[in-house]
Design brief:
The chain has 140 residues and is an all-alpha fold. Helices cover 67% and strands 0% of the residues.
Length: 140
């Protein structure tokens, strides 16, 4: 099996930051964030629509959805944490379900820490029991 020359290997590992026309991915993303379509970006940068589609493939983001999530991130994280904690209250623990419960507990703890950070609160000395008590109080 022939070996690739070092320059060929490097080019397959990290994509070029610019195209032959010198268009950077950052420039394409900046225009996309402004709400331009792939066609409009291609016209603005004097390149093909296919070029824009290929460069944005896998990273094209719905910025309205992201903005909505960012504005209520703490609430979203808290809601997901509550769902997990409610799932932890299942009865009939078996060895298999114990592993699943352990994974849910870790997920709940992680989400709790993330929501506290979003709210500007400390994540030190936070226990799962306090989260469960909070969910119980919300259910009452």
């Amino acid at each position: 099996m022939p070996k690739n020359p070092p320059d060929k290997i490097e080019s397959t590992l990290s994509p070029s930051p610019t195209t032959p026309k010198g268009i950077t991915l950052e420039e394409i993303v900046r225009l996309r964030r402004k709400g331009l379509t792939h066609k409009e970006i291609a016209q603005t940068l004097n390149c093909s629509k296919t070029n824009i589609y290929t460069r944005l493939k896998g990273i094209d983001i719905d910025y309205e959805l992201v903005a909505g999530y960012r504005s209520s991130r703490a609430e979203v994280l808290t809601a997901k944490e509550s769902e997990i904690i409610k799932a932890l209250k299942l009865k009939g623990i078996t060895p298999k379900s114990a592993r699943d419960i352990r994974e849910l507990a870790v997920a709940a703890s992680t989400l709790h820490g993330m929501s506290r950070l979003e709210e500007g609160k400390s994540t030190d000395n936070i226990s799962l029991i306090s989260s469960i008590k909070r969910v119980d109080a919300d259910d009452s």
